[in-house]
Please model this.
Amino acid sequence: NAGVTQTPKFRVLKTGQSMTLLCAQDMNHEYMYWYRQDPGMGLRLIHYSVGEGTTAKGEVPDGYNVSRLKKQNFLLGLESAAPSQTSVYFCASSRLRTGIETQYFGPGTRLLVL
Amino acid sequence: DAKTTQPPSMDCAEGRAANLPCNHSTISGNEYVYWYRQIHSQGPQYIIHGLKNNETNEMASLIITEDRKSSTLILPHATLRDTAVYYCIVRVEDSSYKLIFGSGTRLLVRP
Model:
C-alpha cells in the first residue's frame, strides 16, 4: 500500500494563477481531509469529505474549492492564488469507525505564491 | 478553537522517559483524546488514543486522569528520532470526525 500520496510535492505560482492539488489514497477510506500548515503553527482544516460526491467546509475554506468524484481521490483547487495561500498543504484520510478516529497523512505539498 | 492546552516546548535526554502533558478541561464524556506527532515538516503521524483507561502500544503510553481533564503521553525511552512536535487533540464530536490541531509541544531529545 502506498497509503496517502500527494501531487505535486512542490509548486511555485504567481499571484492570480490557478492550480489543483491531487490527493490519492489506496486504503478504501471513506473520509478525506485537506489541511494547511503555516510556519510554526498547527494544521488548520480547509475542507473535508465524508464520502464520494460530498464535501464540506472546514475552519479556513475561503479561496479554495474541492471535489471528490472518486472515493480514492480528493482534489483541492485554488482558482486565483494569493500570497496568503503560501503554505504546506497536507491531505489525510480515515476509515469510518464510530468514536475512533485515526487519520493517515500524506507527505505534503509545499506551495509558494509570489 | 483548539480544546487542549500544551506547553510549547520540552526537552529530555536520550534514553530517558519523555512525559508530555496536556490539559483538556472541557472534554465531554464520550470524546476521545488523540496524540499525533509531526517530525520535521513531514505529515503528522498517529501515536495513540484513549477514552478513560490508560493505554499502551508499541510507540507510547497514554495516562488519562480519573476526571479526564488532563492526560500525559509517555515515551518510555526517548531516542533522537522522537524529536518532533507532539499534538494532543480532542476530536470534535460531530459526524465529520474532524481533528482540531493546536500548536502542540516541540520535544527536543538531547544526545
